[in-house]
Specification:
single chain; mainly alpha; elongated
């Protein structure tokens, strides 16, 4: 079934010509297209710098093996030179050297004093805690001793009263028994 179009027939809506003006692309769509094209460009340039043969690849690895330590040693040398230059400018004259020494001495003395204060504070705090605990223990011991002494005194009085009552009862029983036996 072949479809033929007549000259006066309308085209489907999807292929119809637009009569309204198209809106410009949004910034995010433009950014997406830009990054995608940049990725394609990067891929093409990256693959072109890669060695094509195994020999070239081995050559790149050998160059890296030599250049990495050389670069590291040059960086270390530069750092050492800048440090030495800084020290020579700082300690160029005897006066500046002595000034730096005094500065270091003051800093050391300040640190020592701060440490001594902290130690004193810690010692005082520990002694205070110890005194408080000792006084609490002594107070508790005194209270317990008083309580035990009161209990002992109370028990002694009760025993004396009961022993007096028991001895009086025993005497009464003995007198009653003698009275019954004698009659």
């Amino acid at each position: 079934m072949a479809t033929t179009t007549t000259p006066g027939a309308q085209k489907p809506a999807s292929t119809a010509k637009r009569t309204t003006k198209r809106k410009p692309a949004t910034a995010s769509a433009r950014t997406t297209r830009t990054t995608a094209s940049a990725r394609r460009n990067t891929r093409s340039t990256t693959s072109s710098t890669q060695p094509k043969t195994r020999v070239a690849h081995a050559q790149v690895i050998a160059e890296r093996a030599v250049l990495v330590p050389v670069g590291a040693s040059l960086l270390a040398r530069d750092n050492l030179v800048s440090t030495v230059k800084g020290l020579t400018t700082k300690y160029r004259t005897r006066a500046s050297f002595e000034r730096e020494l005094k500065r270091y001495e003051r800093r050391g003395a300040t640190a020592r004093n701060r440490f001594e204060r902290q130690v004193r504070r810690a010692r005082t705090r520990m002694e205070r805690d110890l005194r408080q605990r000792r006084s609490l223990v002594e107070r508790t011991m005194r209270q317990n001793r008083r309580r035990v002494n009161r209990e002992i005194t109370s028990v002694r009085r009760d025993l004396e009263k009961q022993s007096g009552a028991v001895s009086a009862r025993v005497e009464r029983l003995v007198a009653n028994a003698q009275g019954l036996l004698g009659s």
